[in-house]
Write a structure and sequence with these properties.
single chain, two-stranded antiparallel sheet, 2% strand
Length: 404
């Protein structure tokens, strides 16, 4: 029996990592010049792999109840919108149980870094993708910006930011001051290639914030750092609502119009960028609709537009619970990841997508899933053991009632 248990655990472990690596590869393929004709089928494969991992993992009763609740939410979302991302997310998060998520994120980091470098070299040798794009980037003139095989200058700086952020989370606590300076300078060099203001600024903020957290240790345990994350989360949702509500009136307010120009007209384009005014407040629905499939930046707005107000609100609540759990465990580098992604998602929608491996918040949720909901107590059971356990529990209650 013990040998079977160890074999089951090893099998679950390998299946999980197979799913993770495939999901990361899907992100890299999406960033490349190659069009994946079987992407949907591969999503089904990774869902199946994570489902098998769940079947081979023991959970507590409350964890099963949570998984069931979120799967029902995902099913409702699927029937309302035709999108299956919530179901896939729930299965992935559940499959993170009993996995060393720091080790998992190291795999994500090194596979992503290796894949990006491969795409860069393929573009340099003219095999796949281009080195640069020459076009009008909305500034009234034609200019050349580098993409290095990643499709768009913003995508190049985006992947650089995501790698820096994950690298800081994994290795930042051991970094020297000069290494932070080098990262900061490399970020400036990347900006000279891409001219991506958002990518440059949010990467700089992440590096500075990480340095402050590491070299001023008193900040690591201060509740106000975690409280600011709560306020930032609420502020992002509020800004998304404001952008969606007032996009139409923006041309009549000079100060806001100037601010929006710094964002490359992202707010005004919510209303004037499509015939359906996709992303504006009237297009937000309770559970989402199949018609809401338009792509735009501003990730927080896209979250509510694509998936509906209720699922998006539940996701925000889960993020708030995650922040509280990070405070309880004083996991300050997790706050670095969340705060950086919260800010970045105001302007870009990189993590609001069909690709699970883009969104590092999901890995953090998976790491703390049971504890966040106080569901990590009791006796762990495989799913096929649950009916028998419930039956025995019912018999115990009946016997107890009869004795009374």
């Amino acid at each position: 029996m013990k040998i079977n248990g160890l074999l089951r655990e090893k099998t679950a472990h390998y299946i999980f990592y197979m799913g993770i690596i495939i999901e990361v590869m899907l992100v890299l393929i999406d960033k490349s010049a190659y069009t994946n004709p079987i992407e949907g089928q591969i999503f089904r494969l990774t869902f199946l792999l994570f489902f098998i991992k769940v079947c081979l993992t023991k959970y507590f009763f409350r964890e099963y109840a949570l998984i069931a609740f979120f799967l029902v939410l995902g099913a409702v979302s699927y029937f309302a919108t035709g999108r299956n991302e919530i179901i896939r997310v729930v299965m992935f998060v559940a499959s993170c149980k009993d996995v060393d998520m720091v080790k998992c994120l190291k795999v994500v980091f090194w596979v992503t870094l290796t894949g990006c470098l491969v795409l860069v070299f393929l573009s340099l040798f003219g095999i796949l993708g281009t080195m640069a794009l020459t076009q009008d980037y909305g500034r009234g003139s034609v200019e050349t910006r580098y993409v290095l095989g990643l499709g768009h200058p913003n995508s190049l700086h985006c992947m650089f930011f995501m790698l820096v952020l994950l690298g800081l989370y994994l290795y930042g606590s051991r970094m020297k001051i000069y290494e932070f300076v080098v990262l900061f300078l490399v970020n400036i060099g990347m900006f000279l290639l891409t001219k991506s203001k958002t990518g440059m600024l949010v990467t700089a903020l992440a590096v500075i914030f990480a340095g402050l957290l590491i070299y001023i240790p008193v900040l690591q345990k201060k509740i106000f750092i975690y409280g600011l994350s709560m306020l930032l989360l609420a502020g992002c949702v509020g800004i998304a609502w404001g952008a969606a509500a007032f996009s139409k009136e923006l041309p009549y307010y000079d100060a806001l119009r100037k601010f929006d120009r710094l964002l490359s007209d992202r707010i005004i384009n919510l209303y004037y960028g499509s015939m359906s005014h996709a992303g504006t407040l009237p297009t937000w629905t309770l559970l989402g609709v199949t018609e809401n499939e338009y792509y735009f930046d501003m990730g927080w707005v896209r979250l509510f537009y694509w998936y509906g107000i209720l699922p998006a609100a539940i996701y925000v609540v889960v993020l708030a619970l995650l922040i509280w759990e990070l405070y309880r465990k004083k996991e300050y580098m997790g706050i670095l990841v969340l705060d950086s992604l919260f800010i970045y998602t105001l302007v870009e929608a990189h993590i609001i997508s069909v690709y699970l491996a883009r969104d590092y918040t999901l890995f953090l949720i998976g790491m703390h899933f049971g504890a966040m909901f106080h569901a990590d107590k009791g006796v762990g059971r495989y799913f096929w053991q649950v009916p028998k356990a419930l039956f025995q529990q019912k018999l115990t209650l009946i016997n107890f009632a009869q004795k009374d």
